[in-house]
Amino acid sequence: MFETAIAGSLPKPAWLAETNKLWPQWRSQGDELRQAKADATLLWIKAQEDAGLDIVGDGEQSRQHFVHGFLEQVDGIDFANKVTMGIRNNRYDAQVPQVVSELKLKGRVHAFEAQLARAHTKRKLKFTLPGPMTIVDTVADRFYGDKVKMAMAFAQLLNQEALALQADGVDIIQFDEPAFNVYMQDAADWGVQALEVAAKGLTCTTAVHICYGYGIKANTDWKNTLGDQWRQYEQVFPALAKSSIQQVSLECYHSHVPPDLMRLLEGKDVMVGVIDVASDVVETPEQVADTIGMALQYVPKHRLFPCTNCGLAPMSREVALAKLQALAAGAALARQRLGA
Ligand code: ZN
After folding, report:
1. Residue-range definition of the domain harbouring residue 49
2. What spacing in Å lies between the alpha carbon of 22 and ligand 1's midpoint?
């Protein structure tokens, strides 16, 4: 009960990449960079285990950014000529690569870090991939001319890599779809369908993470415009509830999401965000256990998985580590309160 996991990303050590950045520059290249990525992956697996998390991941130490890490291994994308594009409905500008011809995987995308992680932990291993709709929103299209068509093309590639990750021994494959909270109608119309294409044939656990973004200023400013009740999930959850995706990760603690929206996910495992990633204040185990207790009004206990609201990539290592410990300690306290 209350198996804990993080959403996905963790801060990169200062010797691996620039710190406190969403698109950090690597500190080295070639074999040296490969070794540094491996070292950081092992370090974070150990730290997650030591903190007491039940489900661990690679902390996304081998990718510069959660979307572009995947795109770097796709043929048909011009990375040499990035363009500035407003993303997430123009919430902020990003330097994005361009799709210039038909998309095809160059080969395996995440074999190195997935196999490394699998070889070094006996705990359940979760691996994250960007969702098709979020990819489409983080790349400039100069070829397809149709969002849905391009999303379905990416979904096929994601599926290819997801099946290979499953063969590597990954237990949970999670697709990150922050764009679902921005283009709610599109998400319900075709985003969930594209996600199902990406997850087709998987027999491991499948998950989707939908959040209000990393704790960067552009996102906190945007959240301040969303009013007292954030009802974005209300439009997407019914479509997800009908889908084959088994787990849904959502933002909860310190958000203005009405918690009763979790009821719309009946039949799904719910990864409830009990850790705020937009604040350096570390939650107490009591606060975490209180959030779990509150969520239990809407989610059955065997379906509740305490999680972070989003990734921890842009935070300091010290704070991130303390938050992992708070997550595990809070879940333990919640179990104790229920007499389990
Ligand atoms: Zn997120």
Report:
1. 30-69+104-337
2. 12
